[in-house]
Amino acid sequence: MIILGLDTSTRAASVALWSDGDLLGELVINDKRTHSQKLMPMLETLFQLANMKVDDVDLLAVCIGPGSFTGIRIAMATVKALGHVRNLPIVGVNSLESLAYNLYNCQARLVPILDAQASQVYSAIYENIDGGPRLVRDIRVVDIDDLVEEVKDLDGRTIFLGEGLNKYKDKLRDLGPNISLASNNTNVSRAASVCACALYKYTMRQDIHTCYDIMPMYIRKSQAEVQYEEKQRAMKNDL
């Protein structure tokens, strides 16, 4: 089975090809260009280097968020178009479980974090059970200080990872001998991890969708939506 994975939920854009449990190829670009500029050239390059075509793909895997609202939409629109043209199933993988797969089989509790603005992060807690990361505390938006206090009360080894470390490293340092920060190379969102998680989900018949019913995971409203609603309320109050 050939899996094509896409992740544009964070600053990094990533695409990967996965074949029967093996990574065929992956491209990750972590710069300031928009994902709309990066994604299609990356896909074209990946297929060329792997000597493959879109017609060879059997399953699509996409990171559905949470993360960048615009970024999520770009990857979602791309897999929906591919799924529609080729009538392919699509597996949805959230950005936090994808990060946890960066440390697949690590014998520690994993706490991925992504910046959610206003001193808050998107987070969840995973443990490696039965050969892979399994969710043990639900995905939510939480104040970084509250999350730190929560994790400090847990027993055993814990690792923070994800793009949120770039912003909150100072708050996460020196929390005790059992709490550590992942290395920079495992903090970047990777399409290879999206593929690995998607393969497990497809085998377990979980989160499998079509181009018509797959939905993004935003967790909360975008800042633009919040500002629009505030403006609408202000206009009604002025009437």
Task: Give an overview of the whole structure.
By secondary structure, the chain is of the alpha/beta class. It has 2 domains: 2-95 and 189-228, ATPase, nucleotide binding domain (Nucleotidyltransferase, domain 5), CATH 3.30.420; 104-186, Nucleotidyltransferase, domain 5, CATH 3.30.420. It has 7 helices and 11 strands. It has helices at 35-49, 69-86, 95-101, 144-152, 165-172, 191-203, 223-238; strands at 2-7, 13-19, 22-29, 59-63, 90-93, 109-115, 120-129, 132-143, 158-161, 179-181, 208-209. The strands form 2 sheets. Strands 3-2-1-4-5-11 form a 6-stranded mixed β-sheet, with helices on both faces. A 5-stranded mixed β-sheet has the order 8-7-6-9-10, with helices on both faces. α2 (69-86) links the parallel β4 and β5 (90-93). α3 packs across α6 (191-203). The longest helix has 18 residues, at 69-86. It is globular, with a radius of gyration of 18 Å. The termini are far apart. The model is unreliable at 224-229 (pLDDT under 50). InterPro entries: ATPase_NBD, Gcp-like_dom, T6A_TsaB. Residues 26-192 form the Gcp-like domain. One of its GO terms (biological process) is tRNA threonylcarbamoyladenosine modification. This is Universal bacterial protein YeaZ.
